[in-house]
Write a structure and sequence with these properties.
Length: 715
């Protein structure tokens, strides 16, 4: 056997492995078992301990396969005998075993011992030895943890295991170039790469597996932090425009604000101003709770750029959000915002909106104004990334909604800055737990808005279990009517546009249908409590012009009740709205519910949010809704979300940048991340190109591909 995958597996098997992400021997070594059978000793059939994992060795007496009566599929029943007692073991939907498990064959089975109709059997049995030559097992084989791998179609567990064991034995040293420096392994008691592979695939004790798993965490933490340290070091070498002028536009804006900045806004503004005044490009994350005033902070930074003779651009993921940002800036600037570049005075600011749906003529005119410096601030979507969009002097980019710069997009925006690299401010709409910020945004400096403006966040939240208390829905509709009668706006948020089939979990057959947004809107219109109210409908399939018209009518009061999908989740600012009704709230995440709730009471007025749910109060997920209702503190909810769901759900692909981290938990392993960060920063400081650690450099490419961070989706 050689150390090439093609010499050990057929083309069909290699295709099956490729579907599991295994394309090379290195991938195969990292194709780790999903669990282990830890038996103790091989047990006689008459002495099997009920409820415990066991491995048995016995002779096949009889095999038969039949179709199941109650559900689809087949059942293969195998009767085995160990010389004293027999046992029947059932394999579901594995009819091919019928031709392999021939009478007289000695087999080794593993599984959990259970009782079925008074007889002992193995639950979810695994056939451990898959060839006739493999029946003479040693005591070590029977007593060691046995690896159970993820299913690879057409490749038996033992054949896969035997191939990995053999390859580990014959592989050369080049297969074991270690990404972890020797000093680091010694400092933290970690096994070298070859030993760790042996511990995973051929453990003698389960402690061997745990030791190897700890090593994989350190490996991923070091790769992540080294990549971030490299990015930071590279970024710091670039030249940025010095933006330190607090001129007439900035001064007039601060003087015109109808409120005082919070101490947190002032402090964060000073951090940003210090970055803008430097010659290295700012690369900073700004995050805070819903309504903490991030837009004001970002706009003050953009005005500093404008006063310094540069332009600023704000990029948003969707046209709805870009339009909302444009209108928010328009309101904040007030009379200071110029209607036309030709009419702008010294203390006025020209702001424009660029989206993909703009008429071609308008877009060309806007592109010309940007290129000639007639536009100070432009708000837009991916349209700003096109080659035809150029700037006279781009000094600052504000990126909304945690969409990170990818390699190609970063270069595209850098080119738009001419000889200089624009400063970058990344805004997150949701609070980020400290451990998340330390790990996921380690290449950015982090600014946190910890205070809320005075008079905000007066929102009462109630969970309404309409299954347990169906009359409560009618009461909610009455309150919606009263709110509209008082001249206030009501949001009704629904999780989907189209109706959805409901399937029976057992049979898979369709047993009903859940409404789409048009049906729920029509039912509300026809309800006796709301029959006199003016409704509007908003969802992602509407054109930009339609969305803008509906939102404008809702802002003006022409629409009293707006039924919408989550397109209003972020950035939509309707000061007159004081009630939020979220239908089927169980279908939304904690952060999403908090964001949606933040759309009401934005002028400081008392507001109400109802979380309508079809869950019973006894359902485990009901507690998630209660957690949202119990607090308005977004940081507390972010920690709760991270703790209850785990970072695999909380951190989306856009936040992780599509990385393939599988072992590191930022929740449980923050100490590893912190230590790895120190080591990574030292490595990069003495060896920026990682020439002395080629294995680490290769592993970083493996875990964090070159296109690790996408930028902004077409909106």
């Amino acid at each position: 056997m050689t150390t090439r995958l093609e010499d050990n597996f057929s083309k069909k098997d290699r295709n099956a492995l490729a579907k599991r992400g295994v394309h090379s021997v290195a991938d195969l070594f990292r194709f780790f078992p999903r669990r282990y059978l830890v038996p103790g000793e091989s047990t006689r059939l008459g002495e099997l301990p009920l409820g415990e994992t066991a491995i048995i060795q016995a002779e096949v007496i009889k095999v038969g396969t039949r179709r199941m009566k109650q559900r689809k599929g087949t059942i293969t029943e195998v009767i085995v005998h160990d010389g004293q007692q027999s046992m029947k073991i059932a394999f579901f939907n594995q009819h091919w075993l019928d031709g392999l498990l021939t009478p007289g064959l000695t087999v080794v089975f593993g599984g959990k011992v259970e009782s079925y109709r008074g007889q002992l059997t193995l639950s979810s049995p695994v056939w451990l030895n898959r060839t006739e030559d493999d029946h003479e097992w040693t005591p070590d084989d029977l007593n060691s943890p046995f690896p159970i791998y993820p299913v690879v179609k057409g490749i038996a567990q033992s054949r896969l295991w035997n191939a990995i064991k053999t390859l580990l034995r014959v592989a050369g040293s080049e297969q074991f170039d270690d990404p972890l420096p020797k000093g680091m392994r010694e400092q933290f008691g970690l096994p070298d790469l070859r030993t760790a592979f042996e511990d995973m695939h051929r453990p003698r004790r389960i402690e061997d597996v745990e030791r190897a798993r700890l090593r994989w965490k350190w490996e991923e933490a070091l790769a992540l932090q080294t990549e971030f340290a490299s990015r930071k070091a590279t970024y710091s070498q670039l030249q940025a425009p010095t933006l330190l002028e607090v001129g007439p536009k900035s001064r007039r804006f601060d003087q015109s604000l109808p409120f005082e900045l919070t101490a947190s806004q002032t402090a964060v503004g000073e951090e940003i101003a210090a970055d803008l005044a430097g010659s290295a490009p700012m690369h900073r994350l700004l995050h805070g709770d819903v309504g903490s005033g991030k837009t004001v902070v970002a706009l003050r930074a953009m005005l500093t750029a404008v006063d310094s003779g540069a332009q600023a651009a704000m990029l948003a993921p969707t046209e709805v959000l870009a339009t909302q940002h444009f209108h928010s800036i328009e309101r904040l600037l007030g009379e200071q915002m110029a209607l036309s570049p030709l009419l702008a005075g010294d203390d006025q600011v020209t702001v424009a909106l660029m989206t993909g749906s703009m008429p071609a003529r308008e877009r060309r005119e806007l592109a010309l104004d940007l290129a000639t410096g007639n536009i100070d601030i432009v708000v837009g979507t991916h349209a700003l990334l096109s080659e035809s969009t150029m700037f006279e002097n781009l000094g600052l980019i504000v990126v909304d909604e945690q969409h990170r710069f990818g390699v190609e997009q970063r270069e595209a925006m850098r080119a738009k800055g001419g000889m200089n690299t624009p400063h970058t401010l990344v805004m997150s709409a949701t609070p980020i737990p400290r451990t998340v910020a330390m790990t996921v945004f380690a290449d950015l400096d982090v600014s946190t808005l910890t205070e809320m403006p005075a008079g905000s966040k007066n929102i009462a939240t109630h969970v309404v279990p309409i299954v347990d208390q169906p009359t409560w829905y009618a009461r909610v509709r009455q309150l919606m009517d009263q709110t509209a009668e008082a001249g206030r706006g009501v949001f009704v948020v629904f999780p989907r546009i189209e109706p959805m089939d409901v399937e029976d979990p057992e049979s898979g057959s369709v047993i009903g249908q859940k409404q789409g947004i048009e049906e729920i809107s029509q039912k509300l219109r026809e309800s006796p409590e709301l029959s006199e109210r003016r409704f509007g409908l908003l969802h992602g399939r509407m054109s930009t012009a339609e969305k803008d018209r509906v939102l404008a009518d809702f802002v003006s009061g022409q629409i009293e009740i707006l039924v919408s999908t989550t397109v209003i989740e972020v950035g939509v600012d309707v000061p007159r709205a004081t009630m939020m009704v979220i239908v089927e709230a169980e279908n939304f995440g904690v952060a999403q519910l908090h964001q949606l709730r933040g759309r009401v009471g934005r002028d400081g007025s008392p507001a109400t949010c109802f979380l309508l749910t079809e869950l019973s109060e006894s359902n485990d997920s009901y507690g998630r809704l209660q957690a949202v209702a119990a607090t308005l503190d977004g940081f507390e909810l972010a920690e709760y979300d991270l703790d209850s769901r785990g970072e695999g759900d909380v951190l989306s692909a856009s936040q992780w940048g599509g990385s393939s981290l599988r072992h590191l938990s930022i929740l449980r392993d923050s100490h590893i991340v912190a230590e790895a960060k120190k080591i990574a920063e030292h490595i990069v400081s003495v060896d920026p190109e990682l020439e002395a650690v080629p294995a680490l450099r290769a592993f970083i490419r493996r875990v964090l591909p070159a296109d690790d961070a996408h930028f902004i989706e077409a909106g």
